[in-house]
Amino acid sequence: MSSKTESASIPIERGWEDIREGVKRICERFPNAYWVQLDHEAAYPTQFVQALTEAGYLGALIPEEYGGAGLPLSAACAVLETIHDSPCNAAACHAQMYTMGTVLRHGSEAQKRKYLPGIASGALRLQAFGVTEPTTGSDTTQLKTRAEKKGNDRYVINGQKVWTSRVLHSDLMLLLARTTPADQVRKRSEGLSVFLVDLRAAEGREGGKGVEIRKIDAMLNHNTCEVFFDNLEVPAENLIGVEGQGFKYIVDSMNAERILIASESLGDARYFIRRAGDYARERVVFARPIGRNQGVQFPIARAHAQTIAAELVVRKAAALFEAGRDCGAEANMGKMLAAEAAWAAAEACLQTFGGFGYAREYGIERKWRETRLYQTAPISTNMILAYVAQHVLGLPRSY
Ligand SMILES: Cc1cc2nc3c(=O)[nH]c(=O)nc-3n(C[C@H](O)[C@H](O)[C@H](O)COP(=O)(O)OP(=O)(O)OC[C@H]3O[C@@H](n4cnc5c(N)ncnc54)[C@H](O)[C@@H]3O)c2cc1C
């Protein structure tokens, strides 16, 4: 992309240039061939995650008093956007950045002192987030995994989660489970609680038991699993906040998550637009660059316009979040628009590359598969539209 196009693509201050530069240098050490190999082996990008951890990027959002960098959300957005504007993918470790937000905002001082410094340094991996269940899906308040209190000192957990990403590469899991039966709660959003589950003990890694993990063979190398709980004992001190209020805590963390994921989509979009533009200028067919044809140019130009529009909403959402203001609408809309822009860019790019787009060594088809996820997870587009319809436009609740 020429510098003229580049400056036109940044209508507002992106900021954090030093962070972008540092992350870019790390990403350069992990070219497409590294990711192709991992994909082939369905393996986890351990070295990549290690490099980001050692550089301190994954602890960006943890306050300095707990060992993190204490940076604002826009800095973490810059980290993730830069990773995705390269052959790399942050999905292997992005949860380490934001899952801790629930502990930070709702945990006790003792819990924060016990866990956050280890999470900040990477000594403790909090990569797993167990919410989705096979039978209830997007209807989170109806989830069935039960946590029953036994005596004063422990809960016993039974049930199943699905699509729990990175759980095999995590020491801790943030788990949402039911502590009051659904037919006994006053409101649908009550009766669920959040636990910090120590997987090292539970999964048998250190002799414990109660958790069985099965990897899901999926369209992308996301290290995502089914998790079965069979009388798993969790100490009562691992309950986060007040019993029964867990859904509220999870929802509370969602705006930050949406904005961070949207930043990954913006990075993906930029990657595809740059690669498509470069290829369209260089590939000569019928004695001229394919990029001279409007049929090739226009989808790339349209994706670029969509990306710029999405970027404005995402940056506004981050600014509102940092100012402590309500950003639910912007975070949701920004996430949806960025995911759609990335998909438009992915489609334009794959089409521009013709048959070569399907060759793994070009690094297009894998990113194309990866970016598609963000229209489904962590929340699907329809759920965002339902939020906008109900909470922004005042339409009746549809579900
Ligand atoms: C690779 C991957 C990684 C994931 N990682 C995690 C993770 O780490 N932790 C975790 O907890 N979850 C994770 N998920 C789960 C993800 O958040 C869910 O897949 C997603 O929220 C959708 O839930 P579902 O698959 O049950 O779809 P369903 O809820 O069954 O929905 C299916 C479709 O129907 C639509 N739909 C449902 N109800 C309505 C309605 N009322 N109105 C309009 N449309 C509707 C949905 O939008 C969707 O398109 C992951 C998923 C994937 C694929």
Element layout with pairings:
Elements: H1 3-8, H2 17-28, H3 32-41, H4 46-54, H5 73-84, H6 94-98, H7 100-106, H8 109-121, E1 126-130, E2 146-150, E3 154-165, E4 172-178, E5 192-198, H9 199-202, E6 211-215, E7 224-235, E8 239-240, H10 246-282, E9 284-285, E10 288-289, H11 294-322, H12 328-352, H13 365-372, H14 381-392
Parallel strand pairs: 1-4
Antiparallel strand pairs: 2-3, 3-7, 4-5, 5-8, 6-7, 9-10
Helix pairs in contact: 2-5, 5-10, 7-10, 10-11, 10-12, 11-12, 12-13, 12-14
The chain binds flavin-adenine dinucleotide.
Flavin-adenine dinucleotide is lined by residues 129-132, 137-138, 163-165, 218, 222, 224, 373, 376-380, 382-383, 386, 398-399.
3D architecture notes:
With 399 residues, the chain is an alpha+beta fold. The chain contains 14 helices and 10 strands. It has helices at residues 3-8, 17-28, 32-41, 46-54, 73-84, 94-98, 100-106, 109-121, 199-202, 246-282, 294-322, 328-352, 365-372, 381-392; strands at residues 126-130, 146-150, 154-165, 172-178, 192-198, 211-215, 224-235, 239-240, 284-285, 288-289. It has a 4-stranded mixed beta sheet. Strand 2 (146-150) and strand 3 form a beta hairpin. Helix 5 (73-84) crosses helix 10 and helix 12 (328-352) packs antiparallel against helix 13 (365-372). The site of flavin-adenine dinucleotide has 23 residues, from strand 1, strand 3 and helix 14. Flavin-adenine dinucleotide binds next to strand 1, strand 3 and helix 14.
